[in-house]
Amino acid sequence: MKTNCIARIQFQLYVINAISPHLPALKDEGSLPCPLKRQCFMIEKVKNTKVNRKEKIKAYIEIIRIPNSFMMGLAVLVGVLIANHEYFLNFRNYLTILSGFATGFFLTASSMVFNDYNDREIDLINQPSRPIPSKRIGEREALSYGILLSLIGIISSLYTGLYTFAIAILTFGIALLYNFWGKKTGLIGNFMVSYSVTIPLIYGAVMINSFTFKIMIFASMVFLTNTGREIIKGIADIAGDSVKGIRTIAVKYGAKRASIVAFWFILVAVFLSFIPTITRMTGLLYFILVLAVDGILISSVLTILNKADKEIALLVKKRILFAMFLGLIAFSLSFV
Q1: Considering the domain boundaries, does residue 60 fall inside one?
Q2: Where is the chain membrane-spanning (predicted)?
Q3: Residue 186 in 3-state DSSP?
């Protein structure tokens, strides 16, 4: 059954590419062959639509995933807060803090651009409205944009020290390796993404020479939670990933088994969230906030366990991203 599905999708892509030069002759969506209506009609609209300056700027903003990039920049600051919240009391440290945020933001933004460039064929199936498949940003433009963002992030890391510069170079290298190789490896690729999501916390602590056990616990929670989220994302992208040969857990073993694996990763993260309170490394406010985070995470994985399909996976991955953002707030206020 799976082989037939993959073959059908590959055939559809072949037919779309074959008939795309003739699409302007088609008058409306209703005249298209039933199995290809949506894909072909979108190609026709792209071919006949000129991208104005406003739409171009919007596409450049959209492709860097502002919420994701901002959260990674914020995670660097959270790493500083966890390691030593008094560091923010000295005004002379603010240029270092700003440089740390810029490193996290721009390296994440560049990774998002390279990710979309590498996924441009898959996104014709999974996300055809994204900037590159919709032709709002050209392929060469995307590469140039990604390189520029990378340079800004790496140069920013130089200001904060050689150790942070080394971490930035390593993280950028892992992000590139993931986008052009690691993504097809499935769980290994998930771990590479989770490293990139977790490292800003560690970066912030290293930036002020204060790496602690508390940082290690929080970083482990983020790593495990994000790995679960990446596995759930694989459920949402089964169709395109199957065509591209990306060996996610969902593709290899099915959506149901993938949801079970994601459940266990996130459950371990929830258990770890109580260690800072038990060991009295954090205050009452952290405990209250982390209970809310844990509630969102548990309800999310129970939802995907109950019905592991694309629509639910897309909803759940957004909920988990919100829970991770709330978790960063809890980490930031852990000293209260």
Answers
A1: no
A2: 63-82, 94-114, 145-178, 198-224, 260-278, 284-306, 318-335
A3: coil
